[in-house]
Specification:
six-stranded parallel sheet, single chain, seven-stranded mixed sheet, alpha/beta
Length: 316
């Protein structure tokens, strides 16, 4: 089968021909229709996840497709089922940038479920990691109606979903966005924007919100800027990073709750965010679709930063 993989940690992603994997007990084999690109893909290629791995290491964690074979002991899924999820599997190396992937029925590190009627495979593949992260971190922040939140990195895959979810909760969303994305991010639910290309984003927010904000969500990994943005949060508020950039001195803060968000209970998060999409309350902003042989270039572009919305991969 065709797959995008690296030959070892630190290698360059490339299209390869490798054997179709076989499902072990408790696993299912999925013929993939679509996948999507996430920042974590390059982290896996670089060896940043402390998990065993096989080589060549097939990249990609999000995908959607049909179950074609089940291993011994699988009871909830059967051939023909359309599924999607975060295909984390230990050892790493059986990712979704491939024509087939194996995943456990109940993943230890990811989540897998049937795709609801009416949700296209491309959307189902684009949703898991970004959607679960956005929903989980807003839960962790305890965001409520009437509160204000600053989201940095708002135009990315996680950010565009977080903006919608926060606005749906009745919060006032301040989103960082380039001028050419201002209208688009407002259409997704942002009440105000701050142009991070104009310099001193915190000052822009401080000017319009003199009494401060209730929450801050970092999606950029700006270690230097985290403290300044967190300083905008009023006493009793909350700040969180999904990129683990909240510094130790702030994690111990008694003024506001600060956390480096780590996703838990992924099956529940996937079920909840997929239900929001199936009901039409949340959209997944797919901005670009590539074919499997274009994935190495798409990964490089995503790693360079500034990607807007989600990039999906059409496998079949």
């Amino acid at each position: 089968m065709r797959a995008v993989a690296v030959r070892g940690f630190g290698g360059t992603p490339e299209l390869m021909d490798i054997s179709v994997p076989r499902p072990a007990p408790g696993e299912v084999l999925v013929e993939l229709t679509a996948a999507s690109v996430n920042p974590i893909d390059l982290g896996i290629a670089a060896g940043r996840l402390p998990l065993p791995h096989v080589t060549p290491l097939v990249l990609g964690v999000d995908g959607a497709g049909r179950v074609t074979e089940t291993g011994e002991g699988v009871h909830g899924l059967e051939p023909g089922d359309l599924v999607h999820g975060q295909f984390f599997r230990s050892p790493l190396g059986h990712g979704t940038f491939a024509e087939y992937a194996v995943v456990t029925e109940f993943p230890d590190h990811g989540a897998l479920q049937r795709v609801p009627d009416g949700v296209p495979a491309e959307i189902a593949a684009a949703l898991p990691t970004a959607g679960m992260t956005a929903l989980g971190v807003l839960d962790a922040l305890g965001l409520r109606a009437g509160q204000s939140i600053l989201i940095t990195g708002a135009t990315g895959g996680v950010g565009t979903i977080a903006v919608q979810l926060a606005a749906a909760r009745g919060a006032e969303v301040i989103a960082t966005a380039r001028p050419d994305a201002d209208r688009w991010i407002r259409e997704l639910g942002a009440a105000a924007t701050a142009d991070h290309t104009a310099g001193d984003t915190a000052a822009q927010v401080r000017k319009t919100h003199r009494s401060g904000i209730d929450a801050f969500l970092d999606l950029t990994g700006d270690t230097a800027g985290f403290g300044e943005y967190a300083g905008l949060v009023r006493d009793g508020g909350a700040a969180a990073s999904v990129t683990f950039t909240a510094p130790p001195e702030l994690l111990a803060s008694e003024r506001i709750a600060v956390s480096n968000f780590e996703m838990r209970d992924k099956p529940d998060l996937l079920a909840r965010i997929t239900a929001e999409v199936a009901a039409g309350r949340i959209m997944v902003p797919v901005q670009r679709t590539v074919h499997l042989d274009e994935v190495p270039e798409a990964l490089a572009r995503n790693g360079a930063g500034g990607a807007r919305g989600k990039t999906t991969v059409r496998i079949r």
